[in-house]
Amino acid sequence: MSDAKMTIKVLPEAVIGRIAAGEAIERPASVVKELIENAIDAGASAVQVEVEAGGARLLRVSDNGAGIRRREIELAFKRHATSKLRSADELQGLRTLGFRGEALASIAAVSRATIVTRHRDEPMGVTLRLRGGAVEHERPAGAPAGTVVTIENLFFNTPARLKFLKSEATEKRHIHWAAARYAMAYPHIAFALKQDGRERFRSSGGGELADVLAKVFGLKEAKCMVAVDAVEARRPGRPRIAVAGYVSLPTLSRASRDRIILFVNGRAIQDPALSHAVTQAYDGLLPAGAFPFAVLLLTMPPDFVDVNVHPTKAEVRFRDAQLVFAAVQRAVREVLLGSADAAPDPWAESAFSDVYVGYQKPPPQWPRSAGDELFDDAGLDEMPEAGAPPSRPRTLPVLRVVGQVGAAYIIAEGPAGLYLVDQNAAHERVLYQKLIDESANGGIEGALLAESQTVLLSPEDSELLAQVGHLFTHLSFEIELFGPNSFVIRRSPMLLGGMQAAEFMPRLLDCLRGSARTPTDAAAALASVAALRRGQILEREKMQSLIAQLERCPEPFASPGGRKTFIHLSREDLAEEFRRR
Ligand code: ADP
Ligand code: MG
């Protein structure tokens, strides 16, 4: 620095407060989160949140918890003053959400704060009012047991931060989710949220997560979710990790990960790797670009997780992250694969039925949820075309079939030029997408054979079939062992039409042999076996229907195995070839 008179000085407390406040208190929703956490730590059974103007004008959190003793009230607003932690050792085994003793001080430093509280053992309560962290007055007050914290003019003395606040709608949405998250993690606590005098959300405190889910996501969505309740088997040297909550069936999904909500020991956390573990459990069940809904509460020994790594406590570090991911993935996967007979589901049979009645395929725009008006800038929901049955958004322009060449390629033209389509690769893509849609929507379609077929396989193929039998079941096959290396096929996927088992069995097994053997690989194998081959002469209608389906595949450019589905020659390419430019 050029100023020679610059010396090192400890900043006055008020300045420290304003700087530090920036760390944990980024926006109005951070205040709501901290105050809710305090209410939960205080043992409240009811928490009410009121907000005006997206929190910029007023934020108030009221609880019926233990309250603060009069002689401790000023201390509560001092930095690093906490009743929840005595020594560094205790950080290892925290059972409260707060521990740094920073929130009240940080919030008060950048606002006008008023607290009215009465400790449940004291006859009289107290009111304390601060401005920019400085106490303006303190006086006795009659009040019910519990605490009401009111924050006005947030960031009034930190203009830079005020300027960075997003639109009021965005702040409202963040506040909504801060409250909704805690309502889901603590279904025993009754939460209410009022924004600008209107009640936006209320949970009963009845203790059932399912009830809160219906409030947060909407009843229709909640009905598409199934309960997860798994505890990792005890093993020596391994912590006990419990995974509970709800996840969506493949019939319900969204185009982003924002409905995957995770808690670790009652704390809402953000962990992209853990979210990924959840989506991985849907491998083969959801199309690319679709993400599940999930509310998962993980419980593990407090010393297995370090919560003291992030200013807003939104991220945590696990002693063995791999173990946690595996536990989550296993728990979710098991529920999804076994969900047909999921017992602890409060909506029982209805879980599968009444959401997509009349639809053959999942609709393109993932269902809107209760909180969606709060997601106004998400911009994800495309409208279906009027009159047409629900279908996916198109990924290619409308193409007109011109003809077929070499009994292998379809020539088509569109506004952007000429397309030479490989009928085999394109059909593979279309069939694969159909299978993925079907498995996401109740299962791949199969049919009992009029006459069951017996097939004799090579010893290697029989061995492989024994290993991947579950994938054949996923493809809707019913196969029984008949004798050594000999099998009876009673049911097979619709896509195979009249093809003979002696033909499709070895080919399917061949496709699966070198693959990772996931349900997606199985779908790709079936698509490859069932697809139109080269050498097949096609009628124009058949070609037009194939192209029309390809136009709406989410990934139309390649077969599932990665082969090109078409070559595009743009007008410019053609003009260039004929040197017209
Ligand atoms: P921390 O939660 O990390 O301890 P805070 O600054 O959030 O730090 O709160 C400081 C202290 O004030 C808490 O430790 C607690 O004793 C008390 N406190 C804050 N809010 C409440 C509340 N709603 N009910 C009872 N006590 C509270
Ligand atoms: Mg706190």
Outline the structure in words.
The protein has 581 residues and is α+β, with helices and mostly antiparallel strands. The protein has helices at 13-24, 28-41, 73-76, 103-109, 159-164, 168-185, 209-217, 219-223, 272-280, 321-337, 350-353, 423-440, 459-467, 469-474, 501-513, 519-530, 540-550, 571-577, and strands at residues 46-52, 58-63, 112-118, 125-131, 134-141, 146-152, 190-195, 198-202, 225-231, 242-248, 260-264, 267-269, 294-299, 305-306, 317-318, 400-405, 409-414, 417-422, 446-456, 478-483, 486-493, 566-570. Strands 5-4-3-6-2-1-7-8 form an 8-stranded mixed β-sheet, with helices on one face. A hairpin with a 2-residue loop joins β4 (125-131) and β5 (134-141). The radius of gyration is 30 Å and the shape is elongated. The structure holds adenosine-5'-diphosphate and magnesium ion (MG).
Can you lay out the helices and strands and say which pair or pack?
Blueprint (H helix, E strand, L loop, with lengths): L12 H12 L3 H14 L4 E7 L5 E6 L9 H4 L26 H7 L2 E7 L6 E7 L2 E8 L4 E7 L6 H6 L3 H18 L4 E6 L2 E5 L6 H9 L1 H5 L1 E7 L10 E7 L11 E5 L2 E3 L2 H9 L13 E6 L5 E2 L10 E2 L2 H17 L12 H4 L46 E6 L3 E6 L2 E6 H18 L5 E11 L2 H9 L1 H6 L3 E6 L2 E8 L7 H13 L5 H12 L9 H11 L15 E5 H7 L4
Parallel strand pairs: 1-7, 11-13
Antiparallel strand pairs: 1-2, 2-6, 3-4, 3-6, 4-5, 7-8, 9-10, 10-13, 11-12, 14-15, 16-17, 17-18, 18-22, 19-21, 20-21
Helix pairs in contact: 1-4, 2-6, 6-7, 9-10, 12-16, 12-17, 15-16
Bound molecules: adenosine-5'-diphosphate (ADP) and magnesium ion.
